Amino acid sequence: STLSSSSAASDVYKRQSKSFSGFSAHSHDGFHCRHFSMGDPIVRQSLAVLFCIFESALLLPTQLHSILAYLSAKPKGGFRVIHVFVSLYRFWVRCRRGEARKWELNNIRSYIAFAPGAGTITTVFKQALKAEHAVCLGRKIASLLWDLREYYEHVDRSKLRVRCRLMGIPIVLVDCALFVYGHLKFVCLGAETPVSYTHLTLPTKRI
């Protein structure tokens, strides 16, 4: 694994860190994921060791356990929950994205509307085309679009893990994700970061 190989870690991490857009958000810990490309190679090799411990023992410093849940008001009422993770976890996700994407590309499901190239608008458009085609042929058609509203907050994680193993999803990635998602969430009203990090001399705009 490139994450556990300290000799290759520096170049790999630097490339992955720079893949983040400069306009993407800072994490609430004050860091941007592009910051990981700016340090000394020894720092990035230390990250490799930390990630190796994370994946093998599910251990992270307690300072990295918090998740901010911003409540963003919807135009038609109610709130949309936006979870903001610490920068280190976001960076780990980017480094492991290739492994997850391999499984995803080998297990494409046409009925899932959040896969790459299959967003909600695309799914509804395809259903409309099928309906028009059926009507033109004089057939009957019925469609069902199931909105899994906030389903991620109500899933039995132990059952989810069993299903993931049965489906062949890399269990290390599953365990790490479930470990982080299970942490304490701090709820904030509004989409603005409640803490100012300007005194840390960190960039507040594009990096």
Describe this structure in words.
α1 crosses α2 and α5 (157-166) runs antiparallel to α6. The chain starts with 5 loop residues before the first helix and ends in an 18-residue tail after the last strand. The protein contains six helices and three strands, in the order ααββααααβ. It is globular. Strands 2-1-3 form a three-stranded mixed β-sheet, with no helix packed on it. The protein has helices spanning 6-18, 41-57, 87-106, 120-136, 157-166, 171-181; strands at residues 67-73, 79-84, 185-189.
Q: What percent of the residues sit in helical stretches (DSSP H or I)?
A: 40-55%
Distance between the termini: 29 Å
| Uncertain spans | 191-207
What is the mean predicted local confidence, pLDDT? 79
Order of helices and strands: HHEEHHHHE
Entry summary:
The chain is built from six helices and three strands, in the order ααββααααβ.
Structural key phrases:
3-stranded mixed beta sheet, single chain, 207 residues, mainly alpha
List the helices and strands and how they pair.
Layout lengths: L5 H13 L22 H17 L9 E7 L5 E6 L2 H20 L13 H17 L20 H10 L4 H11 L3 E5 L18
Parallel strand pairs: 1-3
Antiparallel strand pairs: 1-2
Helix pairs in contact: 1-2, 5-6
